[in-house]
């Protein structure tokens, strides 16, 4: 039987690294798609020490740049031909207004548009596998976002960091659902999750006092890693499609997240935004 090949973005730390550990321990081939080669190599070394039977490979991927996303996808396709699982895990929470290389508001660009393009470009590789699974890291914070196309390229003015993060996580969820509708009846599935409030580097920009208050309520990265690993390789998840689950709290979805028209609209808009890279 062939080994399951899983590509996970942002796998050098946090939830991504914890998930990669479980996948390696379960014998999967794991591709770590990371932006920082030094951190990525350190993670690879740590994972290789676990002695899994699969491979642990590295791919350079900076979701801040659509050119980097395209190059990473091309490399994956030429090196492997097919992948069984894509885990869109990498993400940021940014307190200040910044832009991606392509001029998008950074949380929208890194958390959503980059992964949207990566997924589009890797769909043929997932379809080339016997069965493909796509997993999107959304968040309960999607409740605080709404889709505002005028903010996609915001470069000045008042910046609401939490709303921008919420918008990016709502977009992840709408994308997962829209993709699931399109993939219905095919060999590829699309599902999303809220990992819980997790103790990771993502809170590095949060003011110290706020972090001290939050800290006791955060769960370890091993909790979402367990759920994501199940979604990625368990038989139980082999046919589930279009689901939204949570590793910790109830997986309630906002009315925006359930709006299929909004999801289809965002999907078409996003295709337009990345058209020159497809
Ligand atoms: N932690 C939580 O409570 C929580 C709650 C809800 C949802 N989530 C979601 O869970 C996912 C993982 O978060 P985490 O908590 O594990 O955060 P984390 O510890 O900060 O890890 C984030 C990962 O994403 C990578 N990354 C950031 N910007 C990137 C870019 N431009 N290109 C490629 N990779 C990039 C980081 O790389 P570097 O190490 O180089 O920075 C890191 O590997 C995110 O999508 C987040 O939105 C987390």
Set out the fold topology.
Layout (H helix, E strand, L loop, with lengths): L4 E5 L4 H12 L3 E6 L2 H12 L7 E5 L5 H15 L4 E4 L17 H23 L3 E6 L23 H23 L4 E7 L13 H7 L7 H12 L10 E3 L13 H15 L4
Parallel strand pairs: 1-2, 1-4, 2-3, 4-5, 5-6, 6-7
Bound molecules: NADP nicotinamide-adenine-dinucleotide phosphate.
Key terms for this structure?
278 residues, binds NADP nicotinamide-adenine-dinucleotide phosphate, globular, Rossmann fold
Structure, described:
- The chain has 278 residues and is α/β, with parallel strands linked by helices.
- The chain has one domain (5-277): Rossmann fold, CATH 3.40.50.
- 43% of the residues lie in helices and 13% in strands.
- It has 8 helices and 7 strands, in the order βαβαβαβαβαβααβα.
- A 7-stranded parallel beta sheet has the order 3-2-1-4-5-6-7, sandwiched between helices.
- The model has no long low-confidence stretch (mean pLDDT 96).
- The chain binds NADP nicotinamide-adenine-dinucleotide phosphate (NAP).
- NADP nicotinamide-adenine-dinucleotide phosphate binds at residues 9-10, 12-16, 34-36, 39, 61-64, 89-92, 110, 137, 139, 194-195, 197-198, 200-202.
């Amino acid at each position: 039987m062939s080994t399951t090949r899983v590509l996970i973005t942002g796998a050098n730390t946090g939830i991504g690294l914890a998930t990669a550990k479980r996948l390696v321990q379960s014998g999967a081939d794991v591709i770590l798609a990371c932006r920082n080669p030094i951190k990525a190599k350190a993670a690879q070394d740590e994972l290789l020490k676990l002695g899994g039977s699969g491979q642990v490979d590295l791919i350079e991927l900076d979701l801040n740049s659509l050119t980097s996303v395209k190059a990473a996808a091309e490399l994956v396709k030429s090196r492997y031909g097919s992948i069984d699982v894509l885990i869109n895990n990498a993400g940021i929470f940014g307190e200040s207004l910044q832009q991606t290389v392509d001029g998008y508001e950074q949380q929208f660009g890194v958390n959503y548009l980059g992964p949207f393009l990566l997924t589009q470009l890797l769909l043929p590789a997932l379809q080339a596998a016997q069965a493909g699974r796509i997993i999107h890291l959304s968040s309960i914070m999607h409740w605080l976002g709404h889709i505002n196309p005028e903010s996609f390229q915001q470069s000045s003015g008042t910046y609401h960091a939490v709303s921008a993060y919420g918008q990016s996580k709502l977009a992840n969820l709408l994308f997962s659902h829209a993709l699931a509708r399109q993939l219905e009846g095919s060999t590829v599935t699309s599902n999303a999750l809220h990992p819980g409030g997790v103790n990771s580097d993502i809170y590095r920009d949060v003011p110290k006092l706020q972090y001290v208050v939050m800290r006791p309520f955060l769960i370890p990265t091993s909790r979402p890693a367990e759920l994501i690993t199940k979604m990625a390789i368990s038989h139980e998840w082999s046919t589930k499609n279009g689901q939204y689950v949570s590793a910790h709290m109830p997986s309630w979805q906002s009315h925006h997240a359930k709006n299929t028209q909004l999801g289809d609209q965002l999907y078409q808009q996003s295709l337009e935004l990345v058209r020159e890279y497809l």
